[in-house]
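Intended use. Records such as the Pyridoxal phosphate-dependent transferase entry shown here are meant for training and evaluating sequence-to-structure methods. They are not intended to support clinical decisions.
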Amino acid sequence: MPKPSSHLDDVLAGLLARRQSRNRLRRLTTVPPGTADFSSNGYLSLSSHPDVRRAYLSRLQSHDAADNNTPNLGLLGSGGSRLLDGNSVLAESLERRIADFHHAADGLLFNSATEANLGLFGCVPQPGDVVVYDELIHASVHDGLRLSRAGRRVPFAHNRVYDDRGKGNEKSAVATKELKSLEAVLRDLQECSEGRLVREGQRNVFVAVEGVYSMDGDLAHLVDIVECVERFLPRGNGYIIVDEAHSTGIFGDKGRGLVCELGLEDRIWARVHGFGKAMGCSGGIVLCSPTTRSYLINYARSLIYTTSLAFTSLASIEVTYDFLASGRADPLICHLREISSHAYNLIASILLRHHPSPILLRLNADKPKSPIIPLFTSHPRSLAQHCQQSGFMVRPIVAPTVPEGRERVRICLHAGNTFEEIEGLGRAVEAWVLGWEEISGDTGRGSSASGEAKVEKARL
């Protein structure tokens, strides 16, 4: 006999219904077999690469002989947190190797890049310190800041380092209710009630950005950011943290990341690398100084109070770094860049040919420097569903994941994608555009249901 719903269930059901009424309800889905992947974050397709899979299976088979000096490192689980019985010689040697690969002094493994951000931002900023962050920084940084003792948390306008034309930004920011540039935020910090402490280096200022932003696919202006921070905080109390989750493996020599590509290793205080994207496995690492590593071991709650990575995860990280360091990923990175450019040009040609309303479908004006291409549309669910029904897995991204008015279908390219698959995706997008505008003359403001019917008519 089913148990009657509780008052709490009724409250939760009401909140879900409200989200459903706004067309924002999230659901778990699976990918149908045979679908071309233009959705996942596995940019280099390493999880399905035959050489990586063979190396991984071989590493698992050699587990007992290779790791008998760590008796608690079981094949399926680690047995505890790093501070108890979950540490291993393999984990520590892997940390040193990864740090060396990325030209860093030291590193500390976490179960994911999310947990790395939680631990780092949750414990490092001290009372009175300030955290300045790009408005599009990952949700895990926001969650870490909720745990933080930092005195202030200040966002700046996405990828806007300097004021336009060198002029002050305050007036325009107030008039348009837009966020200020990084330059303006740092200037304001020097003029606030505790500005003297900032100027004299007695208050730390942490600046948090991403190497590649996962929703828009654009790159942080790291050189400008570094120069701006050093200019306004010359006493060395400005500490830049770069989340490289989406730039690991695809930027820099042998995939070392954007910081290494730009030669900024010695001017970035900490980096967070994630292994769940291009690396095709799981886990994350904070690259930092030995002192910071020791501090995180003592204070990072997301490290202290969680079971550590199992041998299977450590082995997957090990073999993927072997693959990168050997240079065997270089052709994959090259192919990824070629197909990313081809996909953008193909979609751009469709827009040029049919001139759909920008509300219905538009691209960023600049060609992508990453494998992420957002297709901005007022009907992301309809476009995504049409592409999925045509055999191409793309995902709609809607509010609150992105701001209202910035809804999109997110195309993620992979080294495993072929030019034929990209051409097929282009045909699907073009058919959807024709279904909306060529048949009905719709401007993109109609209902999603009517648009889907038109698209189905176009397919028939």
